[in-house]
Design brief:
This protein has 264 residues and is mainly α. It is built from eleven helices and no strands. The longest helix has 52 residues. The protein is globular and about 55 Å long.
């Protein structure tokens, strides 16, 4: 059972991100505006980093998993499993969100867009495909670069969640007027499956652009980082070993062995 825990954690984390972020847009967007929706996405991710980070690394994003794979922070087979789990979590979250939204008896996911991503006529600000592609690639690159840096062996311990959650909030403040902000193929695929043919026809951009941005971030990170041992995201997001040992002792358990640091 323990072998499946990281994948279950990824599914749960992506569920929370999509239900929390997209749910705020669908159910409360008229009341909280772009700022509120941006905070909902950022807070959802921040909470999940501290909740499931020690279990799976809290990727909750195929683009993040791709960037981490390119930097050697996750094995290829596990990365594929993570992506499957992330897609499952996003689709379930979107489906349950639709059930809640239709509780009014008048909600139409196709007419409202159901928090799906888009360009042209489906962009909140009317931005074209070129602008949308550039924005999604750049913003995903910023997100993945932050994840890589915040979980680096040299980064301050315990602050990864804050950095990652805050940068996702910033990214949404920039990107919502352009595309509704994806930077996450799973987040785009979930709502698009229920938002009609228009959303599905434009889905390609929100898969390709984030993956390209993640690849560029991985390359830039490789140029920037110092040649020191590398940590997986699970190791980086765990408690300080002394704190972990103290809490386990209080609970009557035994601390794990200190994480091994792998070379880059």
């Amino acid at each position: 059972m323990s072998a499946y825990r990281p994948y279950l954690a990824e599914a749960i984390g992506t569920f929370v991100l999509v239900f929390g972020g997209c749910g705020s847009a669908v159910l409360a967007g008229a009341h909280i505006g772009f700022l509120g929706v941006s905070l909902a996405f950022g807070l959802s991710l921040l909470a999940m980093v501290y909740t499931i980070g020690p279990i799976s690394g809290c990727h909750v994003n195929p683009a993040a998993s791709f960037g981490l794979f390119l930097c050697g922070k996750i094995e290829g087979r596990r990365a594929v499993g993570y992506v499957v789990a992330q897609l499952a979590g996003a689709i379930v979250a979107a489906g349950l969100l639709l059930v809640v939204a239709q509780g009014t008896g008048s909600f139409d996911p196709v007419a409202t867009g159901f928090a799906s991503n888009g360009y042209g006529a489906r962009s909140p600000g009317g931005y074209d495909a070129v602008s949308a592609f550039i924005a999604e690639a750049l913003l995903t690159g910023i997100l993945v670069l932050t994840v890589l840096g915040a979980t680096d062996a040299a980064a301050p311990v315990g602050f990864a969640g804050l950095a990652i959650g805050l940068v996702l909030t910033l990214i949404h403040l920039i990107g919502i007027p352009v595309t509704n902000t994806s930077v996450n193929p799973a987040r785009s695929i979930g709502p698009a499956l229920f938002a009609g043919g228009g959303a599905l026809a434009q889905l390609w951009l929100f898969i390709i652009a984030p993956l390209l941005g993640a690849g560029l971030a991985a390359g830039l990170y490789a140029l920037l980082r110092a040649p020191i041992p590398q940590l997986t995201t699970q190791q980086a997001e765990r408690a300080v070993p002394s704190d972990e040992a103290e809490r386990l002792a209080m609970a009557g358990g035994k601390p794990d062995q200190p994480p091994r640091r792998r070379p880059f």
